[in-house]
Design goal:
By secondary structure, the protein is mainly alpha-helical. It is about 70% helix and about 0% strand.
Length: about 100
Amino acid sequence: MRRSAPSHAELRVVAGLHRRDPDAVRTMCAEYGQPALALLRRALRDGNAVEDVYQQVLLEAWQRSPTYDPARASLRTWMATIARSRAIDHMRRRVPEPLDR
């Protein structure tokens, strides 16, 4: 399935990310970060874990931003994919609480 053409606003953010512009990261978070944050809230259901994992998502998006290709996925989808992966990683590392009997 092909994605629709990215908007001019999204292309400006992508160009800023490729230049490693901190303002582009702020815009990315403000414009495209909420769906990723909502995904983490639903998946993790722990406010502290959500904040920690969201920071990991933002860091990974910043680190991987030069390789982001807007022709493959929207920023929203790309960030949600990163968030989903980090949420799964977090849940796999979590040690269940022992049950008192």
